[in-house]
């Protein structure tokens, strides 16, 4: 495959201050939505303490020879830990290249104890971009403010912050935005799990106010969805139920990501 120049790929860290915001669900569904538009999409699980993307992609990382943990430890080249998902997912046109994190306790503890170098991570991202000619690389990070998370946020071109509308999440979003401002990275906010009792006009007003307050771009919002909760992370709604209203909303987020400058 013909390699692409650096910076052709748009790298995006998907982050949240707390767990349970739907960060991984959004990452998986938006990645598929982009691939269905014919894009070559890389997806990397950098939630090293609690990886979960493998459930959506129906893979068992413990059965794979290498994971991102091995890449960060310098044991394997990035492409060796990357799984092409297109045939398995019956994608038509686009591509998904997925780099899972290890689910083995010993390897999780090794990575957390030893850490990894910034150059190793940055080189891994660059090599994946060039090797597979990616249009987008979505990196699912660990919630909160951890060393590995800060590295991912600092390296990526854009940061997408997922937040619910409770006070703790809103506070945490403010903290993340302040941190991002020190990195001089564009920040895009997605509100998730909006309660059904709140009217759309009220959500839009709140989103505009919140975006202005934090001086961030509002990439979109998603209502609370029984279908998403009921899938138990075992299905990517955008792929399995393309006519579902939530699938349309995930496609809207994919369009928003394509508009990132």
Summarize the structure in words.
Residues 1-7 have low confidence and may be disordered. This protein has one domain: P-loop containing nucleotide triphosphate hydrolases (Rossmann fold), CATH 3.40.50. It has 261 residues and is an alpha/beta fold. It is globular and about 50 Å long. Helix 1 (23-35) crosses helix 11. The chain is built from 11 helices and 8 strands. Strands 3-4-2-5-1-6-7-8 form an 8-stranded mixed sheet, sandwiched between helices.
Can you give me a brief rundown of this structure?
The protein has about 260 residues and is of the alpha/beta class.
Helix content: 40-55%
Low-confidence stretches: 1-7
Which second-level CATH architecture applies? 3-Layer(aba) Sandwich
Determine the structural class based on helices, strands and strand pairing: alpha/beta
Q: Give me the count of strands.
A: 8
Radius of gyration, taken over Cα atoms and rounded to an integer in Å: 17 Å
Global mean pLDDT: 91
Strand order of the largest sheet: 3-4-2-5-1-6-7-8
Net shape:
globular
Order of helices and strands: EHEHHEEHHEHEHEHEHHH
Helical segment tally?
Answer: 11
CATH topology: Rossmann fold
Hey, roughly how much beta strand do the residues contain?
A: 15-25%
The CATH class: Alpha Beta
N- and C-termini, Cα separation: 27 Å
Task: Describe the largest sheet.
Answer: 8 strands, mixed
């Amino acid at each position: 495959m013909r390699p692409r120049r650096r910076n052709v790929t748009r790298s995006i860290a998907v982050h949240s201050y707390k767990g349970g915001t739907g960060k991984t669900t959004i990452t998986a569904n938006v990645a598929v939505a982009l691939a269905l538009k014919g894009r070559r999409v890389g997806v990397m699980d950098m939630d090293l303490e609690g990886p979960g993307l493998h459930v959506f992609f129906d893979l068992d990382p413990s059965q794979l020879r290498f994971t991102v943990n091995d890449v960060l430890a310098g044991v394997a080249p990035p492409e060796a830990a990357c799984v092409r998902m297109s045939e398995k997912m019956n994608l038509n046109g686009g591509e998904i290249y997925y780099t899972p994190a290890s689910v083995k306790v010993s390897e999780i503890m090794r990575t957390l104890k030893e850490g990894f170098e910034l150059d190793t991570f940055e080189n891994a991202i660059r090599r994946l971009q060039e090797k597979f000619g990616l249009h987008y690389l979505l990196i699912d990070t660990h919630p909160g403010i951890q060393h590995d998370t800060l590295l991912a946020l600092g390296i990526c071109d854009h940061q997408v912050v997922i937040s619910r509308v409770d006070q703790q999440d809103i506070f945490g979003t403010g903290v993340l935005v302040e941190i991002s401002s020190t990195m001089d990275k564009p920040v895009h906010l997605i509100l998730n799990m909006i309660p059904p009792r709140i009217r759309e006009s009220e959500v839009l007003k709140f989103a505009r106010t919140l975006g202005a307050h934090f001086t961030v771009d509002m990439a979109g919002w998603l209502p609370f969805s029984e279908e998403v909760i009921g899938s138990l992370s075992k299905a990517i709604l955008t792929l399995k139920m393309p006519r579902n209203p939530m699938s349309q909303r995930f496609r809207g987020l994919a369009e928003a990501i394509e508009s990132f400058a």
